[in-house]
Design brief:
Order of helices and strands: HHHH
Helix content: 55-70%
Length: about 80
């Protein structure tokens, strides 16, 4: 037997229903800090070092980030 249940809710409602914490203030603070750093004249080497620390899968993670930034640069986003 197969059953499909559709639930229509906002991301906030889904987060609350699953009991997940609201990380919005942390996210906002993180993004603000990152923007300050980038606006302060971040060099490409600094960006690579920072992203390398974020990359959980080593070189595969770095490849993902590199492609993402290259794609964003080509689309102007």
């Amino acid at each position: 037997m197969k059953m499909n249940i559709e639930v229509e809710c906002t991301p906030e409602e889904a987060r609350r229903a699953m009991g997940l914490p609201d990380l919005t203030p942390l996210h906002d603070r993180y993004v603000a800090s990152l923007m300050e750093t980038m606006e302060g004249g971040m060099k490409p080497e600094m960006m690579e070092s920072m992203i390398r620390n974020w990359a959980p899968m080593g070189e595969a993670g770095m490849t993902f980030w590199r492609r993402m930034f290259e794609t964003a640069g080509k689309t102007g986003g």
